[in-house]
Amino acid sequence: MGIGLKLLELLLRQKLFGQGLKSEPNTPLIVSYAVTKACNLQCLHCHVSANDAMKDELNLQEAMQAIDEMANLGTQALIFSGGEPMLRKEFVLTLAEHCVDAGIIPAMLTNGVLINHKTAMELKDAGIMAVGIPIDSVIPERHDQLRNVPGTFTKAVKAVQACLDVDLEVVITTMALEDTFDEIPERIDFLAALGVEQVAVYDLVPVGRGKDVMDQAMSQTQRENLIRYLQQTQENRDMVFTMSGGIPLYPEIALEMHRFNDTKPRDLLLKEFWIHNPVGCHAGIFYFSLRPNGDVYPCTFLPVTVGNIREQSLTSIWHNSKILNELRERSLLKGKCGRCEYRDSCGGCRGRAYACSGDYLETDPVCLRDLMVRENVFPKTVKRFGWCVG
Ligand code: SF4
Ligand code: SF4
Questions:
Q1: More confident residue, 192 or 385
Q2: d(CA 10, ligand 2 centre) in Å
Q3: How many CA atoms lie within 13 A of 67 on its CB side?
Q4: Which of 68, 135, 293, 323 has the most CB atoms around it within 10 Å of its CB?
Q5: Is this prediction's pTM over 0.85?
Q6: HSE-CB for 314 with a 13 A CA cutoff
Q7: Which ligand is nearest to the CA of 388?
């Protein structure tokens, strides 16, 4: 199916049936591809500890071949990330065009530093459908402190404006941290005034440099208050929210809250990046992450190599990896997640479980079970999950 038809179908599914991407389990509907480990920033919480490029990053031919295999495996959306993908701009532009030819929706996560009107237009012309840009605070110094380079707040805001000016879809990615939690309403006001309609709020997962700043993670009470705040805000604004970084069930929880309160969300779903299947953590089930050197991880927040596409075909890795197959079998989960009635529909964040215990099948210490029980989200009624990539 051509990409235009695919987008039309997605839009219709969303508008008429409230459904997004859908497929049989064990189809990598969404893939994130970190095209380089190099970055022009040094963010304190960077989950891939981006710094310099790897010496053995994939070349164009290898990446194109991987995209062809993804198309055969059923991939619908490919998100370029890094490091900073704009440091390999020509590479990304060529691959985006290749994605469009292969019927895959291309998108990109960038820190925005290298985006201006000209580059925004180049991305759009290459077929990039959406760009994720971080704004982590309305206080420029606080954003710059987290991103570890002065001036990045101003550049990120300019990047957002440039993308919106050329009608490139923008998703703001924003960290919810303990000490900036109280300013989130102000941040949403600021983003709305900028013309932003889609926001992905990230929880901190202790991976990469994120491990060193875990004392800044939200408390559980803040996390629950945030979910409630976003659900209520969704009612009043023409904005769409999701939560990423280990909270994939946000759309389902918010939907039940709306049902319970008899309120009507304008929209609950980021246009291209949500999936209508009840699995919660989608690592290795509907999603994987391709690393700059061809390694494959189940998720960018679960840095366990399950194979390398230079040594084995992507198709063979996806179908035969012992680790991916273990992640698909929820009866193997241990501890609280293993005993939980939400085991199949939630499964806990496998990345956080691994980061905290060294075992990707162990309990996820950030658990929303109590909230789901309170809000009448029953395991059997969970139908969808949201965008959860980095
Ligand atoms: S214990 Fe919590 S995190 Fe684990 S599956 Fe149940 S609800 Fe999800
Ligand atoms: S491991 Fe699962 S829940 Fe955690 S960030 Fe990845 S996809 Fe989301």
A1: 192
A2: 23
A3: 27
A4: 135
A5: yes
A6: 29
A7: 2
